[in-house]
Amino acid sequence: MLSYTLRRLLGAIPTLFLIITIAFFIMRLTPGGPFDRERPIPPEIEKNLLAAYDLDKPLLVQYFKYMGDILQGDFGPSFKIHDFSVAELIAINLPASIKLGGYALVLAVLIGIPLGSIAALRQNSWIDYTVMGVAMTGIAVPNFVIAPILTLVLGVYLGLLPVGTWGGGSLRNLVLPTIALALPQIAFIARLMRGSMVEVLRSNYIRTARAKGLTERIVLSRHAVKAALLPVVSYLGPAAAGLMTGSVVIETIFGIPGIGRYFVSSALNRDYTLVMGVVITYGAAVILFNLLVDLVYGFLDPKVRYD
Amino acid sequence: MAVITQHGQIPDLEETQGRSLWQDAARRLRRNRASVASMIILATIALLAVFGPLLSPHPYDELAWDAMGVAPDFERSFWFGTDTLGRDLFVRTMYGARVSLMVGIIATFVSLLIGVAYGAIAGFVGGRVDAVMMRTVDILYSLPFLFFVILLMVIFGRNLFLIFVAIGAIQWLTMARIVRGQTLSLKRKEFIEAAHAAGVSPMTIIRRHIAPNVIGPVIVYATLTVPEVMLTESFLSFLGLGVQEPLTSWGALISDGVKNMETRPWMLLFPAAFLAVTLFCLNFIGDGLRDALDPKDR
After folding, report:
1. Is there a smaller number of Cβ atoms within 10 Å at the N or the C end of chain B?
2. Helices and strands in chain B: count of H runs, count of E runs
3. CB A273 within 8 A of CB A86
4. What ipTM goes with this model?
5. Cβ separation B238–A22 shorter than 8 A
6. Best mutation target, A19, A123, A144, to test chain B (most B CBs within 10 A)
7. Which of A136, A144, A264 sits opposite B150 (nearest CB)?
8. Shortest CB distance from B238 goes to which of A19, A26, A249?
9. Nearest-neighbour CA in chain A from B155: distance (Å)
10. CA atoms within 13 A on the CB side of A76
11. Do A26 and B148 touch (CB under 8 A)?
């Protein structure tokens, strides 16, 4: 399994390389530039600015220079957020996103999986309909509606929780954004889990396990849950990557210093280096979590072999 | 079965013709009460979107200076109240419905075209072509979706129609995977082989055997793509990147409503309710279709 992991990590290098290349050229071919202002800056100053950041050179030359810098671990300075390098910005802001995303993920898994399983075990009962109705609401009411309502009710009217501040990431400040971030995920996971559990419970080996006289608890815990988790686990890979790299909406509403905000602002500002920074962070997260998913598969599915 | 009638004739065998896959699916869908109710509600919302503005005396961009931010008022026929600029919220919600529903349909159609073509080619051709094509999909999955949408919107300069196309052009990845998987597994099925052996022409095999089996999952996924796309649009509008004033969409109205939700809750309530109900219905229809078309669930 170690050699499998190593091979996968090596295989990630060309993938990351392609991600960087695609993002670099798409970003550069987009009209506009980092020094566009409402009031145009004098041409001499603009020329000097472009020269200072090597933006006056041919695109391919810039590309190879950027690739060379990245290989040495240099992601360049941000164009818009002065006096900060891209590496610094990500190092400062990523922890908040990971913390919040991590809590939301754990909450979503701990609530979503049992909910989905219960709904599947009591298929077509009122429990099933209630759980799935609530889950559907979690999907149908967007995040940016739920978050302000939660804030207003729990924070402002009832005064239970602090509102609109990060407060250094203390637990009390984390409750509202974690719930808002986790709700749609809980809903998705519960639906997925219910669907796959219903299918697994109908399969032949579950009938065999019951026929052998195993207790219902062992049938479920040893056989059913493990197999039913597979689709949920493959959903969790990309979902975890998305959660841990921050959400623009949640970070904006709750004033969280994460990197989610940069996905929008850097692209709009043509902050070329910062765009590349967040794209690379996201790509690396996706690759990493997909690898984790495949490793977890090995524990859940005896048919999976790493060779 | 055929019963010999009084006159000793065998009745016409056509009468005992079996039901087709689609008739079966339609019957099962009709029995799914949640799906049927969802379709009726959705049709009502669509009709309201088309004809609703005709019912109201107010145009969608008329500013009522003496009625800014008023609560629902039936005497002046502000059925949903007005926004902070004094525009009638009922008419604006209906205009928002037009935009939001159109985004859903057009973007899903675009994603359908790209995804089905891409997936079918990868699945049919197979081998190295398939490997390269699916590797590309994997890599595109690792790029942040939002980043693409924003750049495409910048490039297309906020043209409404192109926004729809741009959202669709990014949503095709999962569709391609589904279609490719279906084609790949179908290619090796015994009934396809049997058809080949019986001398059925390749075109007929595609039409009679492959297409109906691929279309099921495609329809189901497309139905579930519509709410996803609408959510994306509303999210972009919430960030201020979507449709431009005075035109509006549910996302833009909700974004406005959130800002005023403490003093003028109706500004949030009506558009949010319409969006949520629509997404609810689309999801129920998608689930119903999946159950109806699932060949394992007879």
Report:
1. N
2. 12, 0
3. yes
4. 0.76
5. no
6. A144
7. A264
8. A249
9. 6
10. 23
11. yes
Smallest CA–CA distance, residue A183 to chain B, in Å, is 15
Looking at the partner chain, which of B150, B234, B279 has a beta carbon nearest the beta carbon of A268?
B150
Nearest Cα residue to B165 out of B210, B123, B107: B107
Please tell me if residue A153 touches chain B, with a CB cutoff of 8 Å.
no
CA distance A124 to A127: 8
How close, in Å, is residue A283 to chain B by CA atoms? 5
Q: Cβ distance A168 to A98 under 8 Å?
A: no
Question: Residue holding tokens 């589904």?
Answer: B178
Residue A275 structure tokens: 């765009």
**Residue A43 neighbours by CB under 8 Å, 6+ apart:** none
Report mean pLDDT in 10-residue bins for chain A, 307 residues. Answer: 82 87 84 73 79 78 85 82 83 88 93 90 84 83 83 77 68 83 89 86 86 85 84 87 86 84 82 87 89 83 69
- DSSP label at B12? P
For residues B28 and B74, the answer to whether their CB atoms sit within 8 Å is no
Tell me the one-letter amino acid at A295.
L
- Dihedral sign (CA A230, A249, B170, A287): negative
pTM of the model: 0.82
